[in-house]
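Provenance and format

Records in this collection were gathered into a single text stream. Each protein contributes a sequence line and a token line. The two records reproduced below are adjacent in the stream.
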Amino acid sequence: MPNNFNKKIEDALSSLDGIKKASPSPYFFTRLEARMQKERSIWEEVSSFVAKPFVAIACISLLIMINASVIISSEKSNQTTISDQNNEIATIDEYNQVSSTFYEYVNTKP
């Protein structure tokens, strides 16, 4: 068992033989500097601002609060509408019970 363990250690260390320092591709730094100096358009500025986590969380929170306020106000208006409809139905019933004869024509022939 120790022999197998030592062999694995030797294999791991030998895998590092011939390793070279990583270097970037040619003209990498030139392209990087050009990209950093490039002017950003207004849309890039806006999208980078909106992509920030704080702004995104604030917008989502605002939408949730607006939705909650609309739901709450619609429930209140729905309750007042029901009571208004009950009052309206009562007045319609009252008008139906009273019959007016002002518009009934009387036979006016002699």
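Adjacent record:
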Amino acid sequence: MQRRTFLRTVTADRTDLLDRLLTVLMEERARYCVVGGQAVNAYAEPVVSLDLDLVIAVSDLPRILEALASRFRVERFPHSINISSEGSDLRVQIQTDERYDAFVERATEYDVLGVRLPVAAIEDVLQGKLWAVGDESRRPSKRQKDLADIARLIEGRPELRSRVPAAILDRLF
């Protein structure tokens, strides 16, 4: 099964949310990159996820959000903005934490969900996962998934191990 077909099946996406979102980003010439689990999937053995986490350059964000709001449901939270569409279980989350802004400039294109997209550099993806694991406000189940993502990154690129604090490594291996 093709990746795009698999994505549409898993996310029950009858509205082509991903394609419509990417069209807006392209039309608006947004500078962005993929982070989170789908970014990990670009560098490691993929796992199924209904989430797509993005970072949009801070300077582009107000203009992009205006364009997205006219086509999608947009919900604002303290450190993120969720984009959704009725008829799709795909969950798009735009990170608004300014620590992620520098990731956009270091991104490189990879295959994500069957599409070539800019993906944060592997070191940046790891850093994002380290921040997520350390965020006590996140649900424990999400933090466990972040730990598994860190393990997946290290398994594929053992040299990244030196970037992971000992306290987190002790929880992994």
